Amino acid sequence: MPARNRRPPAFQVDSKRTANRWTHRARHCQPGPVGTYVSICGWVDCCEDEQLRLLRGIAAAERAGERDYRGGWTFPTEQPMWGRVAFFAADGRAGYEDRVREVLERVAALPAVDQDDRVRGLFRVSHEVDGATEWRLRRGELLCVPAPPEYDYLDE
Predict the structure, then answer these.
(1) Second label for 108, Cα 20 to 30 Å away, from 20, 26, 98, 127?
(2) Which CATH architecture has domain 38-155?
(3) Are 47 and 111 in contact (CB under 8 A)?
């Protein structure tokens, strides 16, 4: 199935709220160079607060980096019961996934609390040309494998 088209639109909508009404004005934009895009979405599950604190530090360092494509990390303000989860979602030009992979390799290498308490996670990487892969954080590693076909509907 074809990947989602992530190319910039030929026009942009400016929205403005005045007197309790929204007005929309379309304006023509210069389209960027035609390229190939990638979409990355997933989560990391930490076993202890210390791992989550270290993950926040890694995410903060990324936000301070390159101006394009920074961010993408979300940390719920309230974590249910023993859950310590962080989410990541971003779209960018092909090649951006290499940078995210490097970050996730650092996350996967976070120290274990106990022998079996390593961070774990799952990410779907949808590339317009190369198709989808699944990135699995487990046992201190980031494993990149072909995405199972039953989740292809996520790329429609």
Answers:
(1) 127
(2) 2-Layer Sandwich (3.30)
(3) no
